[in-house]
Design goal:
By secondary structure, the chain is of the alpha+beta class. Helices cover about 55% and strands about 10% of the residues. The chain is built from 13 helices and ten strands.
């Protein structure tokens, strides 16, 4: 979302390309076959010697580039463009790829026009990617978390608005997954995580993911992030079903997290796990705003405007003023 904002403010295409590349990576590496998004990839995987090393799947040396890319000039261009050197910029002389030389500088150095240079680089990237696919892959944490999916849905919805591409469909599939597997409509309750048979495992076993495990009552952040995702998707598509789901989540928060006597939102739901004290966040953390202030400042205020429902105000105002 920061990259999207950067593109909107500056108009620099490099930010838009970074957004597209990020979405492409998530779709390829972290998407459940039925639409949700997995949690994480392990930082470690096996290197060529069979030892587990951080970043082994992603790093390069001049030798591995030369082995992967057929044309010597293409390989040299790839190394210069992405900073692959003998010294490296990571462990054991390996390199994490970064854009280290501009297209203009490379075109001048190699005496190529821009289209020819970009064609060579694209060919080199495709060959390097194909070679990388033959490496041992990093393990994947295949939990689908409600809150994290909400964040990704929001980003995709904004991407659809800003870049006018098919990201809204991907976001809608993820929201549908969360509604089917994590939302209990009868109880009006959101579960925090789903873990089913993985895509790779199901292919091997000839099974589907529908026998998965759902667990842990959702925290406030799960309702807040997923609700914001549903609202952002409504803004991107005009589908009132997404707005209706955001309202359902809002009602659930009022019932399960809001303490009217203290005029505050708690992090855990009423009737959740037994704790010495129910935690709450009223100040921003180092990495993100508090769930209470985030959810009330943004999503509930906009939802109130869109639905003309003034009953959100008592829940919204105290959290905003306290944050």
């Amino acid at each position: 979302r920061a990259l999207l904002s950067g593109y909107q403010v500056t108009g620099r295409e490099r930010y838009a390309e970074a957004v597209r590349g990020t979405f492409e990576f998530v779709e390829r590496e972290l998407t459940h076959p039925e639409g949700g998004f997995y949690a994480t990839l392990d930082a470690e995987s096996e290197d060529a010697a069979g030892e587990r090393e951080e970043g082994a799947f992603y790093v390069w040396t001049p030798e591995t580039v030369e082995d992967a890319v057929e044309d010597d000039t293409d390989a040299a261009l790839f190394c210069d463009r992405y900073g692959v050197t003998e010294a490296g910029n990571f462990e054991h002389g390996t390199t994490v790829l970064t854009e280290s030389a501009s297209i203009e500088a490379l075109a001048e150095a190699y005496d190529l026009d821009t289209p020819a240079l970009e064609e060579r680089l694209e060919r080199a990237r495709e060959q390097a990617f194909e070679a990388r696919e033959g490496r041992p892959r990093p393990p994947r944490d295949e939990k689908v978390l409600a809150g994290w999916n909400g964040l990704m849905i929001s980003a995709l919805a904004e991407g659809a608005l800003v870049l006018d591409e098919g990201y809204a469909e991907t976001a809608a599939e993820a929201l549908s997954f969360c509604r089917e597997y994590l939302w209990d409509a009868d109880a009006g309750r959101l579960n925090r995580r789903f873990k089913g048979v993985s895509e790779r495992s199901s292919e091997a076993r000839g099974t589907t993911s529908r026998g998965g495990d759902v667990g842990i009552p959702g925290y406030l952040e799960d309702y807040a992030f997923l609700g914001r995702g549903a609202l952002n998707l409504y803004e991107a598509t005009g589908n009132v079903g997404h707005l209706a789901f955001a309202l359902e989540l809002g009602r659930a928060v009022c019932e399960a997290f809001y303490d009217e006597s203290a005029a505050t939102l708690y992090f855990t739901p009423t009737g959740g796990e037994s704790l010495l004290a129910r935690p709450q966040e009223v100040t921003d953390a180092s990495t993100s705003p508090s769930r209470s202030s985030r959810r009330t400042r943004g999503r509930w205020s906009r939802t109130r405007c869109r639905t003309a429902r003034s009953h959100w105000r008592p829940t919204t105002t105290p959290s905003v003023t306290s944050s």
